[in-house]
Amino acid sequence: MIRSYYSMSAQVEGTTKPQIYINILKSVPIKIASDIEVKKIESIVKEIMNLEKNNEKDTDYKSIIHLEERIDSEIYRIYGFRAE
To answer: 19-28 long-range contacts, Cβ below 8 Å, gap at least 24?
Structure first.
């Protein structure tokens, strides 16, 4: 989502550097998650950190990917999007 807003705002003809205009940034929807939603996401992040910490050499990448997908799903739900 942020990437698409950046792409929209960064393309200005006649410049070599990306430009981001405040009006476009103001249009980016920012949702405030409830305490329950925040705690749920924090819990998933802690699970990921524990997996990475406890299994540095034998990290279970499939579990981490699954947990990251759960975070994505929570964010999509908060914003009212469907996963693609």
So the answer is: 28/2
